[in-house]
Amino acid sequence: MATLEMTYREALQKSMFEEMDKNADVFLMGEDIGRYEGTFKVTKGFFPKYGTRRVVDTPITEAGFTGIATGAAMAGLRPIVEFMTMSFSILALDQIINHTAKIHYMSNGVVKCPIVLRGPGGAAKQLSAQHSHSMDGWFAHVPGLKVVCPATVADVYGMLKTAIADDNPVVFYEHPRLYAMKGELPDDPNFTVPFGKAQILREGKDISLVGYSLMTQINLQAAELLAQDGIDAEVVDVRSLLPLDTETIYASVRKTHRAVVVYEDWKSGGFGSEIHARISEDCFDDLDAPVGRVGGLNVPMPYARNLELLAVTNENDVVAAVKKLL
Amino acid sequence: MSSTSGSATADKPKSEDSSVPQRPSEALSKDECLELFRLLYLARYFDVRLIKEKKRGRLRGTLYSSHNQEAVLVGSLFGLQANDWISPIHRDMPAFFLKDIRAGWRNPERKGMSIEEVCCQVWGKVGSPGRARDNWSHIGKRDAKIIHSTSMLAGTIPVAAGVVLADKLNGGNSVVLTFNGEGSTAQGIFHEAINFAAVHKLPVITIVENNQWAYGTPTELEYSLPDFARRADGYGIPGLIADGQDVFDVYDKVMQAVEYARAGNGPSIVECKTFRAYGHGDHDDDRAVRYREPDQVEKGRERDPIAVCRKKLIEKGYLKGEAAKKFFAEGKNAAEVTDEDFPPEVVEYLKEGIEFALKSPVPDEAEGAMWVFKENA
Ligand SMILES: Cc1ncc(C[n+]2csc(CCOP(=O)(O)OP(=O)(O)O)c2C)c(N)n1
Ligand SMILES: [Mg+2]
Known about the structure:
Shape of chain B: globular
Order of helices and strands of chain B: HHEHHHEHEEEEHEHHHHH
Distance between the termini of chain B: 44 Å
Structural class of chain B: alpha/beta
CATH superfamily of chain B: Thiamin diphosphate (ThDP)-binding fold, Pyr/PP domains
Number of strands of chain A: 14
Bound molecules: thiamine diphosphate, magnesium ion
Number of domains of chain B: 1
CATH class of the largest domain in chain A: Alpha Beta
CATH topology of the largest domain in chain A: Rossmann fold
Strand order of the largest sheet of chain B: 1-2-3-7-6
Number of strands of chain B: 7
Number of helices of chain A: 13
Strand order of the largest sheet of chain A: 3-2-4-5-7-6-12
Structural class of chain A: alpha/beta
Number of domains of chain A: 2
Strand content of chain B: 5-15%
Largest sheet of chain A: 7 strands, mixed
CATH topology of chain B: Rossmann fold
Oligomer: heterodimer
Largest interface: A-B, 32 and 33 residues
Distance between the termini of chain A: 40 Å
Helix content of chain A: 25-40%
Number of helices of chain B: 12
Order of helices and strands of chain A: EHEHEHEHHEHHEHEEEEHEEHEHEHH
């Protein structure tokens, strides 16, 4: 099939345009997304095309607009909510946890809540303690939410389509350091990527590098470095945290007999710890070494560049963790 | 004490204590008036220099200019006592060195940050009180009674209220000025904090720097009031409106609110009407040119606070002859203005701060993981 080349950001836009054209119930809500066309320019072109009915600029009120979008979803629309950064979703956690995520269960399955909560999460560069949060693990802790963290251009396109079509609340986790990344996607408006299916982005036989979002790209770079030392690493891109495709992860581990889980969040209690625990529990007999774990330093993100570089995970950290296990 | 509610947009808080004068600025001496003028230059020059430093590639990070809004900072801080608290946010960088500056620009004892500390803060060097843990406005200094801001808009108001609650419980009588943009007032926490402060009559003065834009969003999409100050009606507290271009008017309104709070009457909101000169941050300057009408920008900037102050000083007879014509910084963008447009002591002050910061080291790597917790004694 023919492919298109574009950036991660452009793939997001293409996906949203196509879904909004198809379904008039889909609408956007967020701060500075309409007239201003988005602080990260993800919603560029939407306000001119769809106008005030379908592109709603909000006051600076994360808790408020998340609740309002939740209500709109309960009443039958399909809102896509943008957080200017995922760090600001912290202000909306009560609405998300107590309303968005619970309504279907609490209404005995009567009221559905098809909402997409999207935005960039994780550390960009020198945005320091309050703008650099990894929120994926916080959300993936909550029953009732689906959480996806696309790492490639094709995935961000195809998974957003799946997110919009899903009848459940979906936290759609983008990464600020991926927006400008170029990649390919199939030239097919019906292309989608299902949730709950991990993928192998690089085959290898010596060790499995398991990650998602930006860390998948870091793992690919680490695999290149390891190859120079004759180590053949397999890169498993988890893609969706809830639902989690343990089968693909386990199959890889059963092949390589070693694994390192890599995640950007604080190392203690991040979602990588959950993946680590699952592998340890379920693949114990297949493992030739304890499962490794690479996570962020357990500190508020420091501003000074030299300290920040120590706190965030890079490919060399992954290489070092791998070498400890071989 | 009877209720003080219903004062709405009244220019003057309705207080039992009618000794609060309507125009505290009339009591300012000639020297004090001239100092206000100089401080406007100082705040402006700080901004101008940082913009230039970034253009030269010597500075990183986002710059939230306070150009055209200096009278809000200078006027609101000038009348504070040394032991009063402030809680500035992203657009208020000059507040960090303007606090208690009447005690002497270079006085090491004063309860404000030195220009060296502020520059180290901006450059991410160890000389900042936070030793580059965080940057720009995300820093405070307890001894100087400056509360650090966070990125979460309006999130500082409850914290500031808590600080003066503690002072009050300890028998003190400090007040706190919290600074906020008009867009930030949409946050739920804004309501929670001010409502609490109103109920408990905490000495919290919320300065709303109404520069008519919140990022790319105009005020009509942020709140639906002709004058934001009327929000105060809902809390039963005074809501004052100040001409944010006029340092004397800001001083008057903030001092009324401060004296009202100090007398035990509780919080006020002071809306300072002003206009954001550039983009939201310097990363947004190019886009701002497109999303704002040139007419609006021109109108919003036509009353430069330096020019407004100059005119008043001439009227008062404090600036005459040659002195009245010197240092025409007003109306000029950072790119147009030169050092000759500023009093030499202002240029010198900044130069010292910047040179100090440039020479200062970055933090040692070992510091990265320190101070997440306080070691128990
Ligand atoms: C809770 C929260 N949401 C969003 C942001 C992103 N943000 C930073 S500044 C800003 C606009 C603030 O506008 P205003 O309060 O009017 O202050 P100004 O920048 O105009 O001084 C926004 C939306 C934030 N910092 N915090
Ligand atoms: Mg504003």
